[in-house]
Amino acid sequence: MGYRLSTVDPARTALVVIDLQHDFLAPGAPLESPAGRAMLPVLNDTVRFCRDVGIAVFFTAHVHRPDGTDMGRFADLYPPIAAGAALIEGTPGAALYAEVDRRPDEPLIPKHRYSAFYGTDFEMQLRGRGVDTLIAAGVTTEDCVHATIRDAMFRDFRTGVLSDACATYDHPDLGHGAMSAADVHAATLVVLAQSTADVLTSAEFKALAEKGAA
């Protein structure tokens, strides 16, 4: 059981950076992930590495229309979204966090659900570039990273998740017990490693990409 990438061909690989927006990363943000802010230097370093070796880099942003017509069940699940206080298209909070290293020519995929594939042209862009391997990083590990990389596996991409470049926030007790951000992150990685993707550190990913480029 479990899945491992034996090598990474930079020309056929993409890194997707999930939802590094102010509403997730800024201090005091409605959906704040302090761990997401803390791992940002590792993620930015990985993004720069990808550019250097020719790995395509995509970014996503989870957004909803101001009139709420695309919120669906998110309005039930997340009071800040329902109230128009988080992830609203065109607001400062929905923009990528200021410290995220994204170049203007790198694609930004707006999405309205956890998965970057749902209701977007993300797959079309990947196929058009000849990508067969997708590596995911960002926030949150258990929701948008998990959903995106699982959807990638469903579509027969080779998949990886960067364990030290993903993060989440504490989960409150909703009748089944509370979990710290660290525990949610670790549990999600265990599930992903068993059923969905190669869970590897950014250093391990770089070593595979350097091997593939040689």
Automatic annotation (TrEMBL):
PANTHER family membership: ISOCHORISMATASE-LIKE DOMAIN-CONTAINING PROTEIN, PEROXYUREIDOACRYLATE/UREIDOACRYLATE AMIDOHYDROLASE-RELATED
InterPro entries, alphabetized: Isochorismatase-like_dom, Isochorismatase-like_hydrls, Isochorismatase-like_sf
Keywords: Hydrolase
Keyword flag Hydrolase: yes
One Pfam family it belongs to: Isochorismatase
Gene3D superfamilies the record matches: Isochorismatase-like
Name of this protein: Cysteine hydrolase
Cross-referenced CDD domains: cysteine_hydrolases
Residues that span the membrane, as ranges: none
Domain Isochorismatase-like: 13-204
Any GO MF annotation of the entry: hydrolase activity
